[in-house]
Write the structure tokens for this entry.
Amino acid sequence: MSHTTVLSVDDLTVTVGTRRGPVRAVAGVSWQVRPGETFALVGESGSGKSMTLLAATGLAPRAATVTGRVRLLDTELTALPDDRRRKVRGRHVGFVFQDPMTSLNPVLPVGRQVTEAAEEHLGLTRRAARDRAVELLELVGIPSAARRVDAYPHQFSGGMRQRVAIAMALACEPDLLIADEPTTALDVTTQAQIIELVADLQARLGTAVVWVTHDLGVVAGIADTVAVMYGGRIVEQGPVDAVFDAPTHPYTRALLAARPDPSRRGEDLVAIPGSPPSPLDLPPGCAFWPRCPVRADPRCEHELPPLTTVGDGHTVRTFYRGEAG
Amino acid sequence: MSADTPDVVAELDDLKVHFPTPAGTVRAVDGVSLAVRRGETLGLVGESGSGKSTAGLALLRLVDPTAGRVRVAGADVTLWSRRRLRATRRHVAMVFQDPQASLDPRRTVGDSIAEPLIVHRLAASTAARRARVAELLDLVGLRADTAGRYPHELSGGQRQRVGVARALAGEPDLIVLDEPIASLDLSVQAQIMNLLRHLQRDLGLTYLFIAHDLAAVEHMSDRIAVMYLGRIVETGPPERIYRHPAHPYTAALLSAVPVADPRVERERRRIVLTGDIPSPVDPPSGCRFRTRCPQARPACAETDPALAEVGPGHDAACLFPLDGERDGGVGEGATTRADAAGTA
């Protein structure tokens, strides 16, 4: 069975009920990820990147209304009742979060946790599960895995815990690995280890990866395709080389330009004024308009810019037509 | 370097800060000497557990030294009582990573900024205090009416501006900035870095900039000290540290920083360290980095290397320092001639 896409998200919108009324956290985002490919979702706080992931995998909070279509392999996830969706997700999708303790139980030996899902979804016996746990811990580079399979999460360092969480996510041999800021809480040398580990596992197992991050350096290192989110929408999306070489949306351009550049030490950084908008308080037109250094078109303030194709697979939502790069 | 040197604002001299824990004594800072000179930004980098934050806290005597000396504004404050230290804390102020946690949520921004003015008796009257608070808000780019607002009403960037205003209130000789941009959105980090640099230029401030973001440290600092497991392993000007790192740990650290350029990322050779940072309860014998060092040799287990000069103003604590050259700073490609050490 071969698939052209592992996960396909089509016009996904998430509205969350709050005390101040319904809030649109994600508005009409569409993207796909293919086998063996890494799709990076970048954005700052409140951009809707994490909610997009949760909704795409049927994990949005109860207070959220999700519309649009999500297809996982051959299954239309959005059409399934909760219990069926949970089964399909458990079998085909692995999750890794920023804080490994989100997924780890502090009072259970790691080995048991790593294969807990596999016992259920693959029908492994206890004995087989333990062997499988050791194998998985070895796979993710835990030293002396056979001994440490009985250790508890607190006996591991932050980086090792994240490895355990990755082993757990891989236990069912998922077609899709969802990684939500998995290295944000880690030191750079540990981050480099985890990135290398995921890339290596992906090459060996052909897993598709969706990686959420706010770090453009991480994106440059891992992604095949990148989508930049702002104010609940994807403002720019495309092959990673195209987006970094020829960033077209003023927000993408500003974000890349704001990083310190060693060849311009001593100069001011090109800061973006203000703060990212709250989903509670989005402007009517382009969400970046209040902070935009360009404001290319009088329509920017009141009218939502259409999605335009500017290159092969490279789309952008802006009225701006200036030179790219 | 000693406290007699007029341009030294604050200094740690062979400082040790050890914490007793049930698992043994944690040697958080284990023999660190550093001097912050007036008007400079000294960048202190290192990963979690390196002791960089503890070293910063020691300058404010917010942790008690186990051994060594702390000197601030020419005075040895190592053994000063809490009461006497109050005055010192006017000389050294601190800005924390999370302004949400360091500002009292029940007090207005104005009251938080005014507190150091009251403690150090820096305003003669309520009116003078109010005027000073307005002035400080203006300095950090906030409107005067921000004084009446509460921290939760502000954005993360605005709260960090308040944190900076509060630090400025005591007119300190030194501001310890402990990860001041780490919890901010990327688009806001540049604003705060610009603000800090403008304030330094306009007011002649001195900073100890503690951070794990190597690109930010390179941008901000005049000198850099790299910490690993309670020790400074390398110190020097940024162009030396980033282009000619002499300590293998510095080289590995720099090579691990991801660069926002897919082509560079694909081509670069990364020095991926194996294993974790060892426990500060039981650091390795000899060089503390040797258990993860790609160049470690038998001698490294026996000799604990001291900082020694490897170039002008550039010291490294390594028996076999690298003499290779990286292609550039954090924003550029990174290669190290790891094998160059073999000929040292």
Remarks:
- Chain B has a mean pLDDT of 89.
